[in-house]
Sequence to fold (645 residues):
Amino acid sequence: MPIYLALKELWRNKGRFFLISLVIGLITTLVIFVAALAEGLGAGNREYLQKLNGELIIYNRNADLLIGFSQLARSKLAEVQRVPGVREVGPISFSSVSVLLGGDKRLNVSMVGVEPGKPGEPPVLAGQGLRSRSGREAIIERNMALRTGLKVGDDFTVKSTQAAKDQFYTLKVVGISDGRQYSLQPTMFVPLLTWDGIRPTAVVNESKGELTSHIIAVQLENPNDLKTMKQRIEDQVAEIVAVDRVTAYENTPGYSAQQSTLNTQGSFVLIIGTLVIGGFFQIQTLQKVPQTGMLKAIGTSNLTIALAAIVQIIAVTTLGVLLGGVATLLLKLSFPPTIPIVFTGNAALGGIAAIMLIGPIGGILSIRYALKVEPLKALGL
Amino acid sequence: MSTVLETKSVNKTYELGASVIRAVDDVSVSVQAGEFVALVGPSGSGKTTLLAMLAGLLSPSGGNILIDGDDLGDMSDAQRTRFRREKIGFTFQANNLVPFLTAQENVELMLRLNGKLDREGKLRAKELLARLGLGDRLKNLPRQLSGGQQQRVAIARALIHNPSVVLTDEPTASLDTERAFQVVETFSALIHEQKRAGIMVTHDLRMCQYADRMIQMMDGQVVRVIKDKAEIYDIARTSKIESQATRPATEKSNNATSQDAGRS
Fold:
């Protein structure tokens, strides 16, 4: 009986309910988009560190886990390597340069200095890894390949400002990795010595002392032994701090602030969605007071009335979510890869689940109101 | 004829600050199967309040209401709701029909609510609507029907599930004269034919010509019961009715009329 009443009303008022579903669809699209934007921006920030082939990351103790502030001498690399349980270590340094794309076009990229064959160098999907410690060669990640059109074997020029002058360096693409952005920029990986020569500096050939790195990636013999190894490394190597990858990328500058901002936006969209959906159903309930009163007067139970309302809310919300899903899919197809929006199954499911939940939550008040309708008053008796 | 509906010294009072308002005061009436009773009286006389209590929509402050021997006062809210959909048919002055159901679906609704809708039930609904002159309007939504047609659909819905009691509140309030007579005549005919106990609350004394009995109420009390057909016709023709009780009614005269009504 409740399903009969609910579906008959939906069918005979298709236009009105379709409009409500359309609004729910738009809210769904917005929720999924905010989630996808958070995912895209988050991934752009954390991708490289998240996929790093090392379980622990070493920072200078005084750097407060800020990569830019951390400077680790070569001697630290050797000390960490000597700690029992450490399989391999790799120094990693970060900076930004511009890739010249022809004409006036250029692309700002993150340049990551790594040691060939050591933790920090990404595995390649095409081409090969870095071969020499100081060669003019680079592995570019997927996003950089897409944005520049570079292929394995291509030469490209980077511009770096050193001593207030633009310096140009030519590099060869030796390999292409999967998506490994750092700091929301397309990223390339070069040998650490090459990095040291190219990176922007205040004076030309600034670094003539001991080669330092920002962080050290550590591969463990037993990757499950994180806690013990972290403690052991911190005990045996002075002035450093070891953290796991999650802690590392959560402390990337701006990452937490960005994610909390987007999550707050997402929460607000859900709250607004709840109010909008709740408002719709409340208005509808108010319009139906005489009808509800009449149904009660002829012997329809409160349970039937409540279930009919719930079935209606779920049906309208489901249609809205489907419409929103289709709209999102179409929008996604029209977006260029440069826009940092990443639709993952989890983000989409999270958005859909949230909307499916806020439908009934928004409708609770209206159901409560419908149950309180007095037949006598509703019918004006 | 057997007694289907009986009220015993029913009263309904409301407290308004320090004063007590007696909306229905010591009313005892009974209605037999196949009897059509018109409940008349001026606004505020208590007839609609009495009707609401008879329908189980309002609990009396005192007294008993029995339908088929079951006392409504002994029932929980849920039991009364179930009782209403099984034993009572109801039409209202307005908002009678579910707006998104067709005429036929509105009539079938009572069978659906009672879990008794089958092929035979659907056929009965169609026949009843055809009998009421709506055979060509089965698939029409309420908004596609005139006021009179809507009232006739409501009458069909009130009768389709074979209730013991059929109550109708001002069924002609929004109808033109011709439609009003048609609706009440049909209603009366079906009450008699199907042996239901029918009660109609109306302001329009002309409609009482189809009633077997008139119960006049004033200030919450039954002040007069008219059983004489000739007298009923006369009242319907002239649209004038005299109250045997002068205001305020004496306790003695009220008791007499109430008991009279109860015996009817």
